[in-house]
From TrEMBL:
<keyword id="KW-0067">ATP-binding</keyword>
<dbReference type="GO" id="GO:0006879">
    <property type="term" value="P:intracellular iron ion homeostasis"/>
</dbReference>
<protein>
    <submittedName>
        <fullName>ABC transporter ATP-binding protein</fullName>
    </submittedName>
</protein>
<dbReference type="GO" id="GO:0005886">
    <property type="term" value="C:plasma membrane"/>
</dbReference>
<feature type="domain" description="ABC transporter">
    <location>
        <begin position="54"/>
        <end position="288"/>
    </location>
</feature>
<keyword id="KW-0812">Transmembrane</keyword>
<dbReference type="GO" id="GO:0140359">
    <property type="term" value="F:ABC-type transporter activity"/>
</dbReference>
<keyword id="KW-0813">Transport</keyword>
<dbReference type="GO" id="GO:0016887">
    <property type="term" value="F:ATP hydrolysis activity"/>
</dbReference>
<keyword id="KW-0472">Membrane</keyword>
<dbReference type="GO" id="GO:0005524">
    <property type="term" value="F:ATP binding"/>
</dbReference>
<keyword id="KW-1133">Transmembrane helix</keyword>
<keyword id="KW-0547">Nucleotide-binding</keyword>
Length: 301
């Protein structure tokens, strides 16, 4: 009888892998209604990743031809650096990350990783080089250990725990009655937004990609969770090429470069202090956020 079940187990595993990949991507990119339109070029080779330098050169893009979203966007993230993108809702921040992950092809310009145009290499190799910590992680109905181990096939329990420690979620997990075997997700234990994000960070630590996309959560977290997450994120982004889609400016004051997007164009760029001194859009956003934070703090008192 066991022999009959084993192939079924295997099928279940394959199904779960595929299903989870789709869930992650759909959740990350809100692609539930769109089909993948991107195909590998015949004979495309895998990306040869060296240090992981990312470059956008004169990128024009629209989801449909009638409505252009990005206009001549150029920036570079030297290997190991962090570039943060800020701007009003709808300015095109998440669109940059979808293009880097090659969910869409651009209409003009070039996007390269270590000098290779991402249209000329296989999609799978591009995606293997990039780790994503999305705003809202969709968990799989399985154990929390499985949800972390999913970051790398064949990860051992010791590796899973080491990743969980670095993501500041280990103590929480061992406090659960079933520890790493606790079932989470829709039919199991519901995790908070901050806990789910740390699971995503642990997964990414296991995947160990040279390039990272962090899509910061917009939802407010309590300050202890917030600082645990910030610590975990700084740990995971250290030495990796990182693109941060930021909503709270206080988290990106140390970024190597900040891009301020306005209606699909880079309106300002520079380091935090330079942008403040400039007294433009960024300085205005900063003042506005400080005021809101003060009000929130007062309301909490
Ligand atoms: P937010 O801070 O609200 O997440 P954002 O700066 O990340 O905003 P994007 O998600 O990049 O903004 O969206 C930029 C523009 O592209 C918006 O006007 C949006 O309506 C449009 N857009 C986003 N996704 C799609 C899509 N799948 N199809 C068509 N238009 C889209």
């Amino acid at each position: 009888l066991m022999q009959l079940f084993r192939p079924l187990d295997m099928l279940g595993w394959v199904y779960r892998e595929i299903k989870q990949g789709l869930i992650d991507m759909e959740a990350m990119f809100g692609l539930l209604d769109t089909e993948a339109e991107i195909a590998d070029r015949p004979g495309a080779l895998p990306l040869a990743v060296n240090a992981g330098e990312v470059r956008f050169d004169g990128v024009d893009f629209g989801y449909d031809p009638e409505r252009q979203i990005l206009h001549g966007v150029s920036f570079a993230i030297p290997a190991g650096n962090t570039v943060a993108v800020v701007g009003e809702s709808g300015a095109g921040k998440s669109t940059l990350s979808r293009i880097l992950y090659r969910f869409y092809d651009i209409q003009a310009g070039r996007v390269t990783i270590d000098g290779q145009d991402i249209r000329t290499v296989t999609q799978a190799s591009v995606r293997a080089a990039i780790g994503i910590v999305p705003q809202d992680t969709v968990l799989f109905n399985d154990t929390i250990g499985y949800n972390i181990g999913y970051g790398r096939a064949g990860a051992t329990q010791a590796e899973i725990e080491a990743a969980a420690r670095r993501a500041q979620i280990h103590d929480f997990i061992v406090s659960l009655p079933q520890g790493y075997d606790t079932v989470v997700g829709e039919r199991g234990l519901k995790l908070s937004g901050g806990e789910k994000q740390r699971v995503a960070i642990a997964r990414t630590i296991l995947k160990d990609p040279p390039i990272l996309i962090l899509d910061e959560a917009t939802s407010a977290l309590d300050s202890r969770t917030e600082s645990a997450i910030q610590d975990a994120l700084s740990d995971v982004s250290a030495r990796r090429t990182t693109l941060v889609i930021a909503h709270r400016l206080s988290t990106i004051v140390d970024a190597d470069e900040i891009l301020v997007m306005d209606k699909g164009r880079i309106a300002e760029r520079g380091r935090h202090e330079d942008l403040l001194a400039k007294g433009g859009l960024y300085a205005e956003m900063w003042t506005r956020q400080q005021d809101t934070e003060d009000e929130t703090a007062e309301a909490a008192e």
